[in-house]
Batch of 4 targets.
Target 1
Amino acid sequence: MISVLQVAVRCIMCPSKKQARLAIPILTLLPLLLLCYGVGNVHCSTIRQNRIDLQALLGFKQGVSDPSGALSNWTLNSHFCRWNGVECTTTPPFRVNGLNLTGQSLSGQISSSLGDLTFLNYLDLSNNNFFGPLPLLGRLQQLQILYLNNNNLSEIIPDDLTNCSNLTALDLSLNLLVGSIPPKLGLLANLVYLNLRSNQLEGSIPGELGQLKLTTLNLGDNRLSGEIPKAFFRLFSLQHLSLEFNMLCHPT
């Protein structure tokens, strides 16, 4: 594109009138060429971004057992925005912003490829039979709602999850999670709903949770011990608190 412009300018400036006249059509077409060049770049960008989301979804599907056929239309015969459970933005480049596959009898491990869906703001894989560790989703900084409850997920809650800085609701209840509650959850300034009920979490409750503006906090039916953090008595927005079936004591 630059070379065409350079040739046209040189012809306009040359002493030969014949060469100058030849340059005029090139300059006339130049705006159209520039427009096409720009559109081409946008198109390539759209294709690249769509491919990222496509590969992320296919990577997730690869590790999933699907006895009920919930993912039967997850094929290259249709755009992924038309796949079961997938929601996309309404304007180009049509990025995935929601994935809802609750109660579909899915099993297997949840692939961390979902962490490449960087436009995602809603992820609900609850009420299935997923097992293994929680996926690494730290790149999902637009994610607001994460429901992975009522599965068979195990191992620890990764600190990586606290990079999802826009989370408002986090439900990991009814799983097999172990270890302690990460104090860094207190950095999720937008979090108002936190449900970790019915896992195998141990240790003390981090006082950092008292920095949040929670309306619901459910930590019941775990193996938590120690004092209830004094900071909890400053959770003025709290409407529902559940701490039963642990080994907790009142602060002294």
Target 2
Amino acid sequence: MRVKIIALALIGAVSLAVFGGIAVAQQDRYTLKLGLLSFDDFKGYENWRVVAVSQTKTQLKVIVANDVMMDAYRQGLPAEGKLFPEGSKVVKIEWSMKKNTKAPYSVEVPDTLQAVATIEKDSKRFPDTHGWAYGNFNYSVASNTFTPQGTDAKCGYACHTRMASQDYIYTAYPFR
């Protein structure tokens, strides 16, 4: 029961942070590109549906997806041998974390935005990576700007090849 409460609190906190306005940067992030992948391809991600949340030792992450990908998730993907449709897009928003000192229980909540990672399926534009493009846009609090990591949209492909049988996607859509 305690685990469920903590999980729900984490989802709530992350959702508030996402829907409460992640658009803190003054630069036009939608002009940024990594090769053929543009941040503009993900315009409106702040309002996409939550797929799942995750946590590392230092970060809280929320994974959101566009309607195309959400429909595929609801149909049971990722699954062995099944492919996500063209136009699927997913974004992972990453924050450092801090303890919520006001909560009546121990819970970590988002602190400072660190990066926005993107994945898009477009087999015509990205044939070398089985149709997927990967981008990571790091956020600097000091300059209040995003910068692309790397020079092309292939950066995440090497990490995702271990998930080839599930169309290169790690995150499952958990039961709700």
Target 3
Amino acid sequence: MPERYSGMGYWEIITRQMSIVTKSQQTRFKESKIAVIGCGGLGGTVIEMLARMGVGELNIIDKDSFDMSNLNRQLMSSIDCLGKSKSEVTEEKIRLINPYVKVNAFNEELNEKNLDRIVGNCDIAIDALDNLVTRVLISRYTKKKEIPFIHGAIHGTMGQMTVFKHDTITYEELFSLPSLGKELNDKTKQEIQCLSKNTPPVIGPIANIIGSLEAFESFKIITNIGKITLAPKILNLDLSNLDSFSC
């Protein structure tokens, strides 16, 4: 941290939002721990916004490295970090944005073996994925552990966001997935993967808008301000059609 800012602290970073929440509400957010699954288009925005709002601790996970095709939407990407681990680059950049946030970076893929280690002790899990199988895995786990699961997805100029809790409809139920009620074995995983064979098109603004909405939804849950977008309600929007902005 530059010497001229050495006297500045956590509360000075978030001072502009302190007319929105009370100090006790912000303290709850400061003491919270959130898991963000993915550090790409959605995840980079989610993580940056959480840090700027003053989250206490982040578990971030992504097994991929940055490449040229990420530059149109992924805020953590830049020419100088091409080929580098997304999770490790994101950890470094967040420490430059808000050094008071503890960031735990995992350069691996989320699976049955590491779920407890990465998500188990978190207050919220945020979906920044482009993988349906992993979404099903994390949605089942968070329901069992009674951890709020914030879902976000994008395609082209369209995006959606909702929140699942232990007492709401499930992710698989809401989207009528073929895995519903089945063991998540290799056959079931293949059925899910068949639903999203192609790489979806996406433009930068929609990734960043949905990511920001996911981040603020977590802020609402922790601080207890505003109304949470609980499933089966889904916040939908299409940047090419303003009439589509609905919930």
Target 4
Amino acid sequence: MGSLAGSGVLATTFIALSCASLAGCAPQSPPMASADVAVANSAAIQPQPGAASAHASTSDYRIMSGDVLQITVFQVQDFNREAQVDAGGNIVLPLIGGVPAAGKTVHEVESEIAGRLRAKYLQNPQVLVTIKDAVGLRVSVQGAVKSPGVLQIRGDTTLTTVLAQAQGFTDTADKSSVLVIRNTDQGRVAAKVDAGAILAGSAPDPPIHGGDMIVVDDSFIRTAGKDALTLLSGASALKFLFP
């Protein structure tokens, strides 16, 4: 009986310590608390009716320094290569040298390369330029997801698509508290989104743009429960050390 009472006191002590530590480790406010971020509801990141998205596809994307392009000239195998846009906004290609790329779409770069090749080397060059790695199409996913990090989006992309690319939610995620932070013409805007409602089909799935940051909050209750179970497991182990 003394041993059982002692183990019970030990378990109670662990629970009390757990609650005390968790009170000091409650999830902190996501980056939305920064003074330069305007907080809005999810409507702030929904497309306006009839408005065309500037991020609809990579064909509309404006190339940036640091992007990596795949250049293909059909029937001219030696010309095919990857080319990174340098700090000056150019790519360097054989025969034609530096080609301005920053600020242009892939179609505009295709036309520039084809025009230079046509002028001196080929009668009817067929040029294809695709984006292999785009700095401006990267999004950051942080918080309670299984695989946080930086992802690259392609074409029309929504919040649930990006979350799936991050391998989904952790066991302690609060699906009702997902923050999308976006740079806009009016400054940085943070919108809180209920991903649980989206998955249930009762809320629209907002589009995600290059440069967005997504932060998934932790559920305090689930985290507390998980930590308490861990501490109780430790109490059971200590019972054998201190009967």
